[in-house]
Amino acid sequence: MNSISTLSIHDKTASKQPLATFIDGWIVSDDVAFINPFEAYISQWPNTRFKPFDEPAFHSQLNNKENLTFPDMIIIDGKIDWVNAAELIKDILGNNTQIILLTENSDTQVLRHALKTGIKDVLTIPFDEEELDQLLYDCAEEKRNSRNQGQVSVFLNAKGGMGATIIATTVAHLIALEQSTSSVLIDTDAQFGCTSNLLSTQPNYLLNEALAQVDEIDEFALNGMLTKHESGLKFITSRSTDLVDTLPEFKATAFNRFLLQVRNNFDHVIIDLSRGLENATLPAIAEANNIFIVVQQCIPAIREAAILIKQLKHLLGINQQNIKVIVNRYTKNSEIKPEEIQKSLHVDELILIPNDYQSVNSSTNLGELLATHYDKKPIVSKLKETSDLIMNKTHEEAHGLKRFFSFLRS
């Protein structure tokens, strides 16, 4: 970036890769020629939000103790009294807010003052846009690493009808049955989502209703918006039974803030992304500890899975170790063997879910959960291995608990 103004030439419809977690920030400047290009730049990030303040509004905000928020980053225009601004930020907000100074003059004296007042970094105008990108990446990574947040696991169909929804629902249910952990299931499909039917439970609120008021949601409001199944599993779905002209839409920033609230209050978040990659739900991919891609033993599904894995790795920067492949309705009689799937998708392991059409069909038709009514079936045992993987249970721990509960029942 050769100057601040060059940011304004960017297409506002363009987008950057999601950050590791949501970043909430302020921009402090009296100059609209400074603020406007930054707002255009920030709009390219799906999970950032920066609020602009002129200098008087900035002071007023810091003095508003009742409604004071704690941003992750504050970008200060070097044309204002930045030394005083930085000292106020440190005194009132503490050390968790990163301060970035943008100035046309960064001589030794400025750098010394910046270091003394706790400013994290100084960018000299003109500077490369990649420098600002990196500051946001670093801030998000530090924030994510410093928080004890719930783990996120997403389930994606390689192509339509692979079975991601029933797998995600069953795995979430199995995690909920563990008394030592808490879990939430999020169904993002407003058109075909069937989570409430699988759970035989009508939702209290829909996802778009929660996202519409995400800035006002606290821990108590969040629990009120989630629907509790009799097993203890809490969930929120997107599909309405009402007749609507258009499907509800939401922004990635709102979804990311909601996801952050859920992660702050629950140990495990299971997200059904059976429709595949969509802009609004990309923050879930960025936050995910586990990305499960569901395929079946057919060439079209494996071909689409290969494309999806390339998108995740090369376009979204997802680590290979976070990607797992589930072969649903697996049968040994298929011409396509697991080894061939591994080779085609360049993965070391596969999760093989055995074909049990009768149990799954009965479960979906009657609204009876697999783990409750078909717990002796091999399909449930394999799905339990998936939930154990999410909870980082070892093979010995899982089987030890199984033997313990068998002893109690005897």
Specify the overall morphology.
elongated
End-to-end C-alpha gap? 71 Å
Assign the CATH topology of the largest domain. Answer: Rossmann fold
Percent of residues in helical segments? 40-55%
Largest sheet: 8 strands, mixed
Strand content: 15-25%
Order of helices and strands: EHEHEHEHEHEHEHHHEEHEHEHEHEHHHH
Low-confidence runs (pLDDT<50, min 5 residues)? 404-410
Radius of gyration, in Å, reads 24 Å
Strand order across the largest sheet? 8-9-7-10-6-11-12-13
User: Using DSSP, what is the number of strands?
Assistant: 13
GO cellular component, one term: cytoplasmic side of plasma membrane
GO molecular function, one term: ATP binding
Keywords: Phosphoprotein
Protein name: Type II/IV secretion system ATPase TadZ/CpaE, associated with Flp pilus assembly
What descriptive keywords fit this protein?
410 residues; alpha/beta; Rossmann fold; 2 domains; eight-stranded mixed sheet; five-stranded parallel sheet; 17 helices; 13 strands; disordered C terminus; Type II/IV secretion system ATPase TadZ/CpaE, associated with Flp pilus assembly; phosphoprotein
Write structural notes for this entry.
By secondary structure, the protein is α/β, with parallel strands linked by helices. The chain has 2 domains: 4-146, 3-Layer(aba) Sandwich (Rossmann fold); 151-409, P-loop containing nucleotide triphosphate hydrolases (Rossmann fold), CATH 3.40.50.300. It is 43% helix and 16% strand. The chain is built from 17 helices and 13 strands. It has helices spanning 32-42, 55-63, 82-93, 108-116, 129-146, 164-176, 195-198, 207-212, 219-225, 252-265, 282-287, 299-315, 338-345, 357-366, 370-373, 378-390, 395-409; strands spanning 23-28, 48-53, 73-77, 98-103, 121-124, 151-157, 183-187, 227-228, 234-236, 268-272, 290-295, 323-330, 351-354. The chain has an 8-stranded mixed sheet with strand order 8-9-7-10-6-11-12-13, with helices on both faces. A 5-stranded parallel sheet has the order 2-1-3-4-5, with helices on both faces. Helix 1 (32-42) links the parallel strand 1 and strand 2. Helix 6 packs across helix 16. The radius of gyration is 24 Å and the shape is elongated. One of its GO terms (molecular function) is ATP binding. InterPro entries: AAA_dom, CheY-like_superfamily, P-loop_NTPase, ParA/MinD_ATPase, Sig_transdc_resp-reg_receiver. Keywords: Phosphoprotein. The modification 4-aspartylphosphate is found at residue 77. Residues 24-140 form the Response regulatory domain.
